């Protein structure tokens, strides 16, 4: 999902929502959320079918 032309408050709200989902185990098993900020006021969010590279085996 590409989020374009967001205000700083909207970006902050998305960051907090993504962090909450990660911290409380709301990401489906076998998946991880990737978040990228390619430019100011934009964000790309992806749900990827894989475990996080730093996850314990």
Protein model, in words:
It is a single chain. The chain has 57 residues and is an alpha+beta fold. The chain has one domain (2-48). The chain has one helix at 8-23; strands at 2-3, 32-36, 43-48. It has a three-stranded antiparallel β-sheet, covered by helices on one side. The radius of gyration is 12 Å and the shape is elongated. It starts with a strand and ends in a 9-residue tail after the last strand.
What is this entry, summarized?
This protein is α+β, with helices and mostly antiparallel strands.
How would the blueprint of this fold be written?
Elements: E1 2-3, H1 8-23, E2 32-36, E3 43-48
Antiparallel strand pairs: 1-3, 2-3
Low-confidence segments? none
The share of residues in helices is 25-40%
Q: If you average the pLDDT, what whole number results?
A: 86
Number of helices: 1
Structural class: alpha+beta
What would you report as the Rg, rounded to the nearest angstrom? 12 Å
Q: Globular, elongated, flat, extended or rod-shaped: what is the shape?
A: elongated
Amino-to-carboxy terminus distance: 29 Å
Number of domains: 1
State the total count of DSSP E strands: 3
Main pleated sheet:
3 strands, antiparallel
Q: How much strand content do the residues show?
A: 15-25%
Strand order of the largest sheet: 1-3-2
Taken in chain order, the helices and strands follow as EHEE
Features:
57 residues; alpha+beta; 3-stranded antiparallel β-sheet; 1 helix; 3 strands; 23% strand
